[in-house]
Amino acid sequence: MTLFRVIAATLLLSFFGCCVASAVLQVVAWRHVRPGIGPSVKGIYKPDDMLDEVGIRQMKLARWLLIVGAAAFVSHIVVLQLGVRLSG
To answer: Which residues, in sequence order, are bridge partners of residue 51?
Structure first.
């Protein structure tokens, strides 16, 4: 059961790491706003209209990090449940 706890803790840590890295990338991407356009929430959903090429890549990477973080969190829950069922 200890192995399941270690794996679950690692997955939870990777979830938090992905969320923090995604947030940092999104903040940094706003430095690449096209001239004459102010920051807007629309830039998160449609970065092509608001950001230059570097900002677009950073926003796409931030999205992928959120997806990987969500998968890590779901895996964390599955591993915890699997550990409980196998141990008891």
So the answer is: 33
Helices 53-87, 2-29: axis angle to 10 degrees equals 160
For residue 47, give the nearest of 68, 25, 77, 69 by alpha carbon: 25
- Cβ 53 vs Cβ 16: under 8 Å: no
Determine if residue 38 is left, alpha or beta; phi over 0 gives left, psi from -120 to 50 gives alpha, anything else beta.
beta
Assign 20 a pLDDT band (cuts: 50, 70, 90).
Answer: very high
Name which of 83, 35, 81 is nearest 55 in CA terms. 35
Strands (E), the chain: none
**Could you tell me the pTM of the whole model?**
0.82
Q: Which are the contacts of 73, defined by CB distance < 8 A and separation ≥ 6?
A: 11, 12, 15
